[in-house]
Design brief:
Blueprint (H helix, E strand, L loop, with lengths): L2 H33 L17 E7 L6 H9 L8 E7 L5 H14 L3 E6 L6 H11 L5 E4 L10 H5 L8 E10 L6 H23 L11 E4 H6 L10 H11 L3 E12 L5 H28 L4 H12 L3 H22 L1 H30 L3 H4 L3 H10 L1 H12 L33 H21 L6 H35 L3
Parallel strand pairs: 1-2, 1-4, 2-3, 5-7
Antiparallel strand pairs: 4-6, 5-6
Helix pairs in contact: 1-6, 1-11, 1-12, 2-3, 6-12, 6-14, 8-9, 9-10, 9-15, 11-15, 11-16, 14-17, 16-17
């Protein structure tokens, strides 16, 4: 074996072994969840009278969903004299008029509602929340992003958990208004279910740290202040505050049966933007807080789980590197012999990939009666996760290099049903280079698949196809929705003479 071959294989198996460790960690999360399945959170008591709650609605250019959100919040089943609504609007477009009109309608009906508009987006969402908190009258603060539709009983189901004075935050599970809109929305729904049902459920019930998700949750105001308040030095102000509060000894509660429906992105570029922000913000938070967390007086199990949680997105650069190495590594190993390939490859890949399939199988089984029908989307979910590696590797590298960037909110189009249109609406995001890189990797893996077929390397084919489909799907859908969609929109206009 030449030095180049040895280097390729050494680096390949080093990367694969780390990914396998994180893959095995998914099994551990399922174990934590299953072990503590019966430890359902229960409120220590009930409030009488109910406390004052401030509902904060942070907005930035949300013209298609602002009125829907404010209307949903007005239907919350909570005493009007104990409910304050703050519309925190940093918008620069028509959203200001839409949100302002909705606020005036609520005020005319007797609601305690305030419209707070900032012309300076300093601190982005964190800055808006902090500014609103400075004039809020509530002892507790509920937060909903623009794409959410809280159920009327949301506050009554969650608020009584704060009768325990150590509880700082109560997080609800996200639902999915438009999960049946497309393959992309179906996959996103399953991804989010895994995060909430198994990650939050397993961590919370095992006494480990987990995070507020920026929306569909309630905070105790004194806990926010005690933890240092909202800070805008990361793109995930929710994760940052969550860990700071738990390091101060506050306790969090996750309520899997309290579901707040939300709109998931229908556009691939919007989905990538969202994932980029979450990945970059989590690494920024990791750099900021992990040293203090590891030095804290906490059980080893809590520290270890927090390490895996905060460092999980480092998997994406490893996945990108693995993508480049797979074809040459397969070529080298093929010349070593078929048996050796199976003996070494299969256990690593099972640890790194089969764990993902099992993880999402369990989460769907726990969340839905028709879970078997949903499993057919898991292979595509695995492929899309791979396809995101270019997008999220860029996010991780930017965070590690200290490159600051604007808080880019995820566009929402008010899409709820299959027939709803969004392509002609504002806020569509444009990307030029990244989809071309993804398409190039997709073609690269197409070559690898053809090579494997030609040489009878059938054991590697399932894994090669996962990578091929992932990169082609993310790249092609970005290009189609960015350019092809415009062609489709213009074609009827030409035909009708407009």
């Amino acid at each position: 074996m030449s030095l180049i071959d040895a280097t390729i294989l050494g680096l390949y198996f080093f990367v694969l072994s780390i990914l396998a460790v994180y893959g095995w960690h998914r099994y551990y999360l399922v174990y934590l969840y299953t072990k503590n399945r019966d430890q359902v959170p229960r409120a220590a008591g009930t409030f009488d009278p109910l406390p004052v709650v401030t509902v904060q609605l942070p907005l930035f250019n949300e013209m298609y969903v602002a009125d829907r959100l404010i209307g949903a919040v007005s239907r919350l089943d909570y005493p009007c004299d104990r409910l304050e609504i703050q519309v925190l609007d940093d918008s620069t477009d028509e959203t200001r008029e839409i949100a302002g009109a909705a606020v005036r309608r609520l005020a005319a009906r007797g609601f305690d509602v305030r419209y707070l508009h900032r012309t300076d987006r300093r601190g982005y969402k964190a800055g808006a929340l902090a500014e609103g908190l400075g004039v809020a009258r509530g002892e507790f603060v509920a937060i909903f992003d623009a794409d959410f539709l809280p159920e009327p009983d949301f506050l009554l189901q969650a608020i009584h958990h704060f009768t325990d004075p150590q509880v700082a935050m109560v997080q609800a599970r996200w639902g999915h208004i438009n999960q049946d809109y497309s393959l992309l929305t179906k996959v996103q729904a399953i991804l989010l279910d895994g995060h909430f049902v198994l990650e939050h459920g397993g961590r919370n019930r095992a006494g480990c740290f987990f995070n507020f998700n920026g929306t569909a949750g309630i905070w105790r105001r004194t806990a926010i202040d005690d933890a240092g308040g909202w800070q805008g030095d990361t793109l995930t102000e929710d994760l940052d505050l969550s860990y700071r509060a738990q390091l101060r000894g506050w306790r969090f509660v996750f309520l899997p049966d309290v579901v707040a429906p939300a709109e998931v992105p229908v556009e691939m570029n919007a989905f990538k933007s969202q994932q980029h922000r979450w990945a970059k913000g989590s690494i920024q938070t990791c750099r900021k807080l992990l040293p203090a967390l590891l030095a804290a007086d906490l059980p080893l199990g809590v520290k270890a789980e927090a390490f895996f949680h905060l460092s999980a997105n480092f998997n994406y650069p490893l996945m990108a590197l693995l993508s480049v190495l797979m074809f040459p590594a397969m070529y080298v190993r093929y010349n070593m012999g078929w048996y050796e390939m199976l003996l070494i490859d299969v256990p690593f890949f099972i640890a790194a990939t089969a764990s993902v399939g099992y993880f999402y199988l369990v989460c769907q089984r726990e969340a839905y009666p028709d879970w078997r029908a949903r499993l057919k989307y898991v292979p595509l979910l695995m492929s899309i996760g791979i396809g995101l590696s270019v997008n999220n590797t860029r996010a991780v590298l930017e965070a590690m290099l200290g490159w600051n960037s604007e808080f880019t909110r995820t566009p929402k189009y008010g899409v709820e049903r299959t027939g709803d249109d969004w392509m002609g609406k504002k806020y569509r995001q444009l990307t030029a280079v990244q989809p071309l890189i993804e398409l190039a990797l997709g073609l690269y893996f197409t070559g690898a698949v053809l090579y494997a077929l030609a040489n009878g390397i059938y054991g590697s084919l399932p894994f090669l196809v996962l990578f091929q489909v992932g990169f082609l799907y993310t790249g092609l859908l970005s290009v189609f929705q960015q350019y092809g969609g415009d062609v489709m929109l213009k074609a009827p206009q030409v035909a009708s003479g407009k």
